[in-house]
Protein: Histidine phosphatase family protein
Amino acid sequence: MAIALVFETHAMTVDNESGRATGWLPGELSGQGRVQARDMGGRRRDDGIAAVFSSDLDRAIQTASIAFDGSGIPVLHDWRLRECDYGQLNGMPADEMHRGRLGHLDRPYPGGESWRQAVARVGRFLADLPLRWDGQRVLVIGHVATRWGLDHFIGGAALEDLIGQDFAWRPGWEYRLG
Structure:
């Protein structure tokens, strides 16, 4: 069997709007983000989703809570779905982080982790998913590192190619695991 996996990013945050790369900081949804989270719920509540897996960072938790409150769909928080840990640079200007991203593909940010380490966490999450959710449709709410992990482990994309791409938001990505 296989798992139908849908990925959605957390909704817009105050940091996103002010050009900050939040990393492992909690983040807070903006007004626009709360609207986006409600829209996600409208898209996904009746989409055959058996469970929602969310990063345990506040911005992803808030997104899942707004989108699925009262739906009866279980929402499970998993730290392995977090964004890359920029360590001492969490909260740095996003344009600065993007310019230096390639240098941290394998070299950890000071006091943090590398992009390859962040993506490896997502791989461990994916390895555990079939133990309970084989044959089901699940939603994952996460970050850039989460999506790169899905593109790498499910889609076969090289991290060297992913790290140079701009992140373009859209209402979900579909994957098939297994």
Remarks:
- The first helix runs from residue 14 to 18.
